[in-house]
């Protein structure tokens, strides 16, 4: 009876230790908020080759679900301010307007996506933990842009400018890479993340007069994040 009790106790502690070790290596689910600069690569968003484009704010909320040692799944809901600026010559503005497209715009874009992320250097038993952890991922999302578009109606050498409300909705493919450090005092982590939201089928800025080298519209973002652990 005594030997049986000792055996049961030993098995219990072994199982408890194994369970604790697995939990200690697991990452918590996370709720995050991010903010930073962004720009839009489009057909009427500036002269990219001369680095003439508007830098505007972006912000997002996300929820990250732990899957296993290397993999998480994240859902993101965000907002990006979008605008064309005033970088075009009068001749180019006329060419765009006479093609039936807006030469300028201002507005906002809402986006939502789901994306698996791969942690390159997660914490693992038997290894020293990395101070900075690096990850990347790609997924699928939907955007909706709301804008005030500016077009010109020409009559000879004179013109009138028309401002109209416009919107576009489409799918995009998010690609993100980032790095973070754990901050136990904040029960979370702080990180820096770069993202490209690639829209190959729909216009984020309402202009399909091809003037750029890459066909897709691309929202480019750089955000600083804080993610709270949900233990």
Oligomer: single chain
Rounded mean pLDDT score: 86
**Category by helix and strand content:** mainly beta
CATH topology heading: Porin
**Low-pLDDT segments:** 1-24
What is the CATH class name? Answer: Mainly Beta
Structural commentary:
It is a single chain. The N terminus is likely disordered. It is elongated, with a radius of gyration of 25 Å. The longest helix is centred in the N-terminal third of the chain and has 24 residues. It is mainly β. It has one domain: Porin (Beta Barrel), CATH 2.40.160. The strands form two sheets. Strands 1, 4, 5, 6, 7, 8, 9, 10 and 11 form a nine-stranded antiparallel β-sheet that branches. A two-stranded antiparallel sheet has the order 2-3. 28% of the residues are buried. The protein is 14% helix and 56% strand. Strand 4 and strand 5 form a beta hairpin.
Spell out the key features of this protein.
two-stranded antiparallel ribbon, Porin, 2 helices, 231 residues
Write the layout of secondary structure elements.
Blueprint: H1 2-25, E1 30-41, E2 46-47, E3 52-53, E4 56-66, E5 71-83, H2 90-98, E6 104-119, E7 133-138, E8 140-155, E9 158-183, E10 188-199, E11 217-229
Put the structure in a nutshell:
The chain is mainly beta and 231 residues long.
């Amino acid at each position: 009876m005594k030997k049986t009790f000792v055996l049961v106790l030993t098995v219990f502690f072994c199982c408890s230790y194994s369970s604790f070790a697995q939990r200690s290596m697991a990452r918590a689910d996370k709720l995050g908020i991010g903010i930073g600069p962004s720009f839009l690569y489009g057909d009427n968003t500036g002269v990219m080759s001369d680095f003439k484009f508007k830098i505007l704010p972006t912000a997002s909320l996300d929820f990250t679900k732990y899957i296993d040692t290397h993999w998480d799944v994240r859902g993101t809901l965000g907002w990006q301010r979008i605008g064309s600026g005033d970088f075009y010559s009068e001749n180019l503005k006329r060419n765009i307007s006479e093609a039936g497209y807006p030469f300028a715009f201002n507005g906002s874009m809402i986006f939502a996506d789901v994306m698996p992320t791969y942690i390159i250097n997660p914490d693992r038993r038997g290894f020293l933990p990395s101070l900075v952890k690096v990850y990347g991922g790609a997924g699928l999302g939907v955007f909706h842009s709301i804008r005030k578009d500016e077009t010109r109606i020409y009559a000879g050498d004179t013109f009138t400018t028309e401002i109209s409300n416009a919107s576009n909705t489409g799918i995009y493919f998010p690609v993100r890479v980032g790095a973070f450090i754990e901050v136990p005092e904040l029960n979370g982590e702080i990180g820096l993340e770069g993202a490209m939201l690639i829209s190959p089928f729909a216009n984020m800025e309402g202009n399909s007069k091809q003037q750029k080298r890459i066909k897709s519209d691309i929202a480019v973002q750089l955000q600083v994040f804080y993610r709270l652990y949900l233990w």
